[in-house]
Design goal:
The protein is α/β, with parallel strands linked by helices. The chain is built from 19 helices and 17 strands. A five-stranded mixed beta sheet has the order 16-15-14-13-17, with no helix packed on it. Helix 8 crosses helix 9, helix 10 crosses helix 12 and helix 16 packs antiparallel against helix 17. It is globular, with a radius of gyration of 31 Å. The two termini are about 30 Å apart.
């Protein structure tokens, strides 16, 4: 870069210009304003703040105490959730893997009470390979992100750097308590309970959402730096509002009131535990998440011997976070996003089965093409989970439900591929039994109707057939179809650089619809490859139908 200063009549070299810009503001001093969780812990310890949630005592645990925690059922945990997802994450530091495809019903067709996260499908770059390999190209991936009040980016100042820098978005129980009690650098935190009384039943959800978002807006206007949406009070007396609903409603309300950049939104929730849950929360504006019920449940399971006793509380947290980090990185890579700052709040999701009233209130500008469940349905399902968790009949809630979301179970969720259909198919294949095949078709079609949107379609017969003259002729319809056929024929040309013969291939693509052939030539001469300069010459020619391109001489021009 070279700058010509016409007023001073001097030339400014590249190094001098960059040095002049760098010295214009005290950037190094500004960066010292940024702080981390370690700084908060140190400040809290110096001030005498201690966690209100001491480490769990494992000495008096019973063999079934973990699954007897009724909060697990309240937040829709299942046996599969613990055994197939969370425990492997803690043991292996990796997200649990399964086969490609999911033959369980969509959330809007489920006979159980799915969490609202299941209504969202992650969008992705539709190419044959991921834009980013999150593991081999880990150097470009980052989950680090500053949170808290953000100053005007058009007016550079030290306030832009006075933020909390997080290496990753998952918080431990100790981190959560430090954030609640912090007064570091004048910051203060507002904790908002995202619950409503049991006696309000299904009618309490929408008023609770309105109350939550108004409290958050008031906190932003009154100078709070962080807003924590917490469902810690959920239990026998209070029903939790879904963390995603509360977050979405608050996030968009703050945007509408021009207050979103003044506060950081943090979630303390027992609902989120899977990688997909974390991604949806981050995609809809969460700055950090503390899945407290995961950590508390893992501590209890460790006392029962399900998790190795050699793992300390910090190791359980680090293993779980490592698994979540890997999962989030894989999801971001599908869209070619390498940093959490770009993914956060981007709403790169599509809703399947949510009504417009829910989307407009909590997930504005999210595509929801088919409509679906309303706030009333979500509230009733939420209340049903409460009734299951805190039923007066103890025998109904001693053991977590296992509806078979991943493995088929008799009486559980429907699956497209169930044992009855597979057994009928095997019988038909082995014995050429027509009746068995018909049973397979019948069972499969029934499962498709129960699990997929396409199964919901029905052909409606018109009472009066249309006249045959209004039907387009078959020969006209066929013209719009194309069958692609690729053939090869060898040819050669002369390189003008080395005067050598070069073989190349013509790709003959036949399309009957347009009654013509397209020839594509791709040629690279070895003399160019030796110079590590690969030239690709592409020639497209149209040949008469039914004739191959004649072999002959051509010339490669390296300057092309």
């Amino acid at each position: 870069m070279l700058l010509v200063d016409t007023q001073a009549k001097v030339f400014i070299k590249d190094e001098d210009l960059k040095l002049q810009i760098a010295r214009k503001r005290p950037l190094e001093k500004w960066l010292n304003e940024m702080f981390t969780l370690d700084d908060l812990h140190a400040a809290g310890f110096a001030a005498g703040h201690h966690s209100s949630h001491p480490k769990l005592d494992q000495s008096n645990r019973t063999t079934s105490q973990a699954v007897e925690d009724r909060r697990l059922a309240l937040f829709a945990y299942t046996i599969e959730t613990i055994n197939m997802l969370i425990v492997p994450m803690v043991d292996t530091q990796k997200e649990a893997l399964g086969s490609m495809g999911n033959d369980a019903p969509l959330a809007c067709l489920s006979q159980y009470q799915p969490l609202i996260y299941d209504y969202f499908k992650q969008l992705f770059a539709q190419v044959t390979n991921p834009p980013i390999d999150p593991f081999r190209e880990k150097i470009v991936m980052s989950l680090a992100c500053p949170i808290g009040p953000a100053a005007n980016i058009l007016e550079p100042s030290a306030q832009q750097c006075c933020r909390l820098y997080l290496e990753q978005p998952i918080l431990s129980l100790k981190d959560m308590e430090a954030l609640k009690a912090t007064t570091y650098k004048g910051w203060k935190t507002k904790v908002i309970d995202i619950v409503y009384p049991v006696h309000e039943a299904a009618e309490g959800l929408l008023p609770a959402l309105n109350k939550i978002r108004e409290e958050a807006c008031s906190a932003a206007e009154n100078g709070y730096s962080l807003v924590i949406l917490s469902d810690r009070k959920a239990g026998r007396d209070y029903i939790p509002v879904s963390a995603l609903l509360a977050l979405g409603a608050t996030h968009h309300h703050l945007i509408n009131k021009l207050q979103r950049m003044k506060v950081g939104l943090i979630l303390e929730t027992g609902e989120a535990r899977e990688v997909h849950h974390m991604c949806v929360l981050l995609g809809y504006g969460a700055d950090a998440i503390c899945p407290y019920l995961v950590f508390e449940s893992m501590a209890e399971l460790q006392g029962e011997g399900v998790i190795s006793e050699s793992l300390t509380e910090d190791m359980i947290f680090k293993n779980y976070v490592e698994a979540v980090e890997r999962g989030i990185a894989k999801v971001m890579a599908k869209m070619g996003i390498s940093t959490l700052q770009s993914y956060k709040g981007a709403q790169i999701f599509e809703a399947v089965g949510l009504s417009d009233e829910v989307v407009d209130f909590c997930f504005k500008n999210t595509a929801s093409r088919i409509g679906g469940v309303t706030f009333r349905v979500l509230a009733e399902e939420n209340h049903e989970r409460y009734r299951i968790a805190y039923s007066d009949r103890d025998c109904d809630n001693m053991v977590l439900r296992n509806p078979g979301n991943y493995h088929w179970r008799s009486g559980g969720e429907k699956h497209i591929n169930d044992p009855l259909a597979i057994a009928s198919l095997q019988d038909a294949a082995r014995t050429n039994n027509k009746n068995a095949y018909e049973k397979f078709v019948e069972a499969t079609m029934e499962n498709v109707r129960a699990c997929t949107l396409r199964g919901q379609f029905e052909l409606i017969k018109v009472p009066k057939p249309i006249d045959i003259s209004e039907v387009e002729e078959a020969k006209e319809i066929v013209r719009r179809f194309a069958t692609v056929l690729i053939t090869r024929s060898n040819s050669f040309c002369v390189c003008v650089r080395c005067n050598s013969f070069v073989n190349f291939t013509w790709l003959m693509i036949q399309e009957p619809a347009v009654q013509s052939n397209y020839c594509l030539q791709i040629t690279v001469c070895h003399c160019l490859l030796l110079k590590r300069r690969a030239y690709t010459i592409c020639v497209i020619a149209v040949c008469p139908r039914g004739r191959s391109h004649p072999k002959g001489f051509g010339r490669i021009n390296p300057s092309v």
